[in-house]
Amino acid sequence: MTPHDKNRDDSRASVELSEMTLQSQDTDISTARPTRDQTDRIRTTEAKSQGRLIRERFFRHKGALAGIALLVLIFILAFSSIGFAGLPGWWNKEYDVLAPRFNEGRPTLTLWPFSLGEHPFGQDVLGRDYFALTMRGTQTSLIIAFIVGLVAMVIGTTVGALAGYFRGWTEAFLMRITDVVITIPTVVIAAAVAGIVAKAGIIPFAVFLGVVTWTGLARLVRGEFLSLREKEFVESAKSVGASSFRIIFRHILPNTVGVIIVSTTLAISGAILLETALSYLGLGVVAPDTSLGKAINDNRSALTVRPWLFLWPGAFIIGIALAVNFIGDGLRDAFDPKQTRVKQ
Amino acid sequence: MAAHSSVVISDEQVPLGNGPILAVKGLGVDFNVDNEWVMAAEDVSYEIHPGEILAIVGESGSGKSMSSMALLGLLPRNGRSHGSARMLGKELIGAPQGTLRRVRGNEIAMIFQEPMTALNPVLTVGEQIREAVEQHTELSPAQAKKRAIELLRMVEIPEAERRYDSFPHQFSGGQRQRAMIAIALANDPMLLIADEPTTALDVTVQAEVLDLLRKLNKRLNSAVLLITHDMGVVADLADHVVVMEKGRIVEAAPTARLFAAPTEAYTQQLLGAVPHLGSKVGGVLADVEVVDGHLSIHEEYAEAALRARETHTASGVVPALELTDVDIEYPGRFRQPPFKAVNGVSLTINPGEVMGLVGESGSGKSTIARAVTGLIRTSGGRVRIGGTDITELTARQLLPLRKKFAIVFQDPAASLNPRLSIGDSIGEPLLLHEKLGRGELDKRVASLLEDVQLPVAFRNRYPHELSGGQRQRVGIARALSLQPDLLVADEPTSALDVSVQAKVLELLQELQRERGFACLFVSHDLAVVELLASHIAVLNKGNLVEQGSTEQVLKYPRDAYTRRLLAAAPVPDPAVQALRREQRTAILAAGATDQD
Questions:
Q1: B374 chain-A contacts, CB cut-off 8 A
Q2: Sequence-ordered list of residues with C-beta below 8 angstroms from that of B100, at least 6 positions apart, any chain
Q3: Residue B581 and residue B287 in contact, taking contact as beta carbons nearer than 8 Å
Q4: Which one of B65, B418, B442 has the shortest CB-CB distance to A255?
Q5: Does B82 map to a domain?
Q6: What is the largest CA-CA distance in chain A?
Q7: Which residues form the ABC transporter domain (chain B) (predicted)?
Q8: Which residues in chain B have their CB less than 8 angstroms from residue A232's CB?
Q9: pLDDT by residue for chain B (596 residues), tens digit each?
């Protein structure tokens, strides 16, 4: 990020250079020493809470803000248009109602002058309104992606943290389980279980996907813990009598936030793709319900004749994935106190 | 050792003439940081003549390393240099990379600080030296190998033929640095740049490496550019000194003159900040004949110690810390026997006393510090803190006791959680033990920051925003937050610059006087220990070889190892240092028999 970081291999140089600025601070210690009546004034310096600092840093990150805006927009659009869980939306068509095809099902959306028309995203081969269908798919994919991300993050972080911190038998046991989960191909487990789970609804399906995809995160978190637990600040915390719980959650975990967030965002993007693949094999979301991945798969032969059937869900997948990655980037920087510079 | 002075300078020597080997004029280095050029060095000018050792001294950030890297064109990618540096009349600054590559290793060679990382761990030491020889000459592999062995012999590696096939991890730290020197000398460079060549080494090893450098410099008639922060090393080795501060040369003078009469305020301040071994007790290694460790003065000291102990027991004083026959083992791995790091150590610190625990790396001093603070378990003996034996307590039983002792770590950068603000770090012990509310906690943190002379506004900062000295102040504030009776300080100043070290030591002394806590001060630096400690214990390979009052240990050491240690510590005074060098040779000669 800064030119220093680029030259990490020449650490001697960067150390000397960064120390130079620090050096000047050191000499003004004596002048900075507060006198008695100054201290009363200085004492008003409030201890800023960690949360506030993180928020401040996050909101200075332009990419993350754009990501949040885009994601919120997609959320609102998807859930308000066709409604959710029985609540009606503002869009007057259902995603599973067949209708006669109008103008070969071409999109009626025009930007100038702006008008939605009868079927803004067109209609699919069966004449279903493609806008409603895409919105339904977006809902499903968002729910799946975030549940998978959450479940994978919680399981992966817990397993990794416990294994890395306690070592010994705990580690051996947890990591062997991890290895077993890794060695069984997801598709095979899915073939055995997903068909049944998917029929129960998308939320059990999403939880199931999370339960099989936490392994990468667990290994990364364990690696981080292994190196951090040997650091002096952990010893320092032990020497003042901090409990293992406190050391794990207050001292080590915050230092691994970067790794956790980056791999969680990757897990979220990955979950969308995994869901697509499983839906393609008929093991994921089942018709008449749909997801973005399923919509693309259903219409994959239509690319040349009816490209809109391909492009609309594709655009939403890209939009969601990009937004999530930008937010992840912003979060990682926000949790890193060394990040003082603002990304433009 | 001197028997091996076989002639290695077999190549045709370039006649050196009378001019300087290197003439640097108006050299400047800048770095591009966030699209702004930041000056790292400016208007640096000096000359080095054949056979001379020039030392560039400065604290971190003075630009001493960068101005030397610029000579070889080894600046990081965001750096640029300007000005002039002529090597035997050839301009180096702005020369094309090809020319510089021929100069590097051939005419100018470098020795780095960390010999372990500078050597390739998968190649034998001999091969690496041979590689350096082959790089710039046209010798056959067999000839190159012969020469590599000669070089190993020249840097005084015993059994050079056999050691040729050893890997770097089979060498000790000092031997590795010797091997690095051999690589540097492979092509008879005219200039040797030694960047902190002994900083990573123990004092006794440092003294040997410095001796070697001095000898080689005399023999090869080449020049040495020594970059260091250590005034003792300068006094020991250099002919001329250039003092740098914030990228500029402050003062340049012959070594003797600089130390005797520094003209600039910064030099005076720098010299004043260096702890001077023997300054408090008046000289070290008093010139008394020590025969088999028997000396009447020792009996006097022993009597004094006994009397002191009797008065303590009579008045019912409980020692702040008492170690009795402590053994500490690191568990062995598969088929590896456990490693005994500390062997039967006993020592006592009374309330309000400062005990210096001195030893070289691997002596077990940090291990003891960690055992005392309950971070590692002892495998034998008793550790009593304020009368309570902590060796058999469970973590839960130990918890309330943790208020009574605290530890300050060596590396202030690593011992503070980078994700906790300074205020949270200092307040953590208070939060854990006194369960204070927010407001009360804030007040206590503020007053602690004040005690260690940091602005209260620092509470919202993070460790990386502070300098090394400020971080160590935070470490001290954290350790003192619960008003411990015993403070364990594990090399608290060894990662700091001398002037910063002086301030931190002053602070520690002041706080110790005010609060009267007992202190176990672990250090490798005898001069620092002398400033603070009333008693000294010397550790060697896990064994306590000597303990007594500071004066006793420094002036009349009983043990051969203590004497070697005292003799090896460089003193920032060239005249004294020259005397001490002779003394050291005598001690080594005397100790050579009982060493083996």
A1: 239
A2: B72, B73, B92
A3: no
A4: B418
A5: yes
A6: 85
A7: 24-271, 321-566
A8: 409-411, 414-415
A9: 344 444 444 344 444 456 788 999 999 988 887 778 888 888 999 999 888 999 999 888 788 888 888 888 888 888 888 899 988 888 888 888 888 888 887 888 888 877 777 888 888 989 999 988 888 778 888 889 998 998 898 888 888 888 888 888 888 888 888 888 888 888 888 889 998 888 878 888 888 888 888 888 888 888 899 998 888 888 888 999 999 988 889 999 999 889 888 888 999 888 888 888 877 777 666 665 555 555 667 777 777 777 877 787 777 788 889 898 999 888 776 677 788 888 889 989 998 899 999 988 878 888 899 889 888 888 888 899 888 888 888 888 888 888 888 999 888 888 898 888 899 899 999 988 888 888 888 899 999 999 888 888 888 888 888 888 889 999 999 999 988 999 999 988 887 888 888 888 999 999 999 988 999 999 988 888 988 899 999 999 889 998 888 888 888 888 888 888 888 888 888 888 888 888 788 777 776 555 44
Q: Alpha-carbon distance B497 to A27, whole Å?
A: 12
Q: CA B535, CA B521: separation in Å to the nearest integer?
A: 10
Nearest to A241 among B423, B433, B453 (CB): B433
Min distance A341 CA to chain B CA atoms (Å) = 10
User: Is the Cβ pair A337, B398 closer than 8 Å?
Assistant: no
Is B278 contained in some domain? no
Q: Which domain holds residue B412?
A: 353-375+402-556
Per-window interface: A 12-51 vs B, CB < 8 A: 12-17, 19-26, 29-30, 32-34, 39, 42-43, 45, 47-48, 50
Domain boundary among B211, B246, B271: B271
- Which residue reads 């990386």 in tokens? B464
Contacts of B227 in chain A (CB under 8 A): none
* Residues in A 193-232 with any Cβ partner in B closer than 8 A: 231-232
CA of A325 vs chain B CAs: smallest distance (Å): 23
Rounded to a whole number of angstroms, the distance from the CA of A291 to the nearest CA of chain B is: 40
Judge whether A239 is closer than 8 Å to chain B, CB to CB. yes
Residue at A326: amino acid letter: F
Q: Which of A16, A47, A232 has the CB atom closest to B414's CB atom?
A: A232
Length of chain B: 596
State how far the Cα of B134 lies from the Cα of B152, in Å rounded to an integer.
16
Tell me, yes or no, whether B221 and B364 share the same domain: no
CA–CA separation, B119 and B134 (whole Å): 17
**What is each CA distance from B49 to B67, B102, B216, B380, in whole angstroms?**
18, 21, 16, 59
Q: How far is A169 from chain B (nearest CA, A)?
A: 15
- Among B40, B410, B417, the residue with its CB nearest the CB of A251 is B417
CB contact under 8 A, B246 and A23: yes
* Token pair in block for residue B216: 């080689």
Provide the whole-model pTM.
Answer: 0.78
User: How many domains would you assign to chain B?
Assistant: 2
CA distance B298 to B342: 26
Burial group, residue A213, by CB count within 10 angstroms (0-12, 13-18, 19+): buried
Distance of CA B407 to the CA centre of its chain: 20
Provide the residue ranges of all domains of chain A, joining segments of one domain with +.
71-101+127-331
Please give the Cα distance from A128 to A107 (Å, whole number).
12
Domain A71-101+127-331 CATH (choose: 3.90.1300.10, 1.10.3720.10, 3.60.20.10, 3.40.30.10): 1.10.3720.10
Alpha-carbon span B244 to B227, nearest angstrom: 11
Q: Is B473 exposed, middle or buried (0-12, 13-18, 19+ CB in 10 A)?
A: buried
Query: Is B316 a domain residue?
Result: no
Residue of B30, B62, B78 for testing the chain A interface, max A β-carbons within 10 Å: B78
Cβ contact (<8 Å) for B429 and A240?
Answer: yes
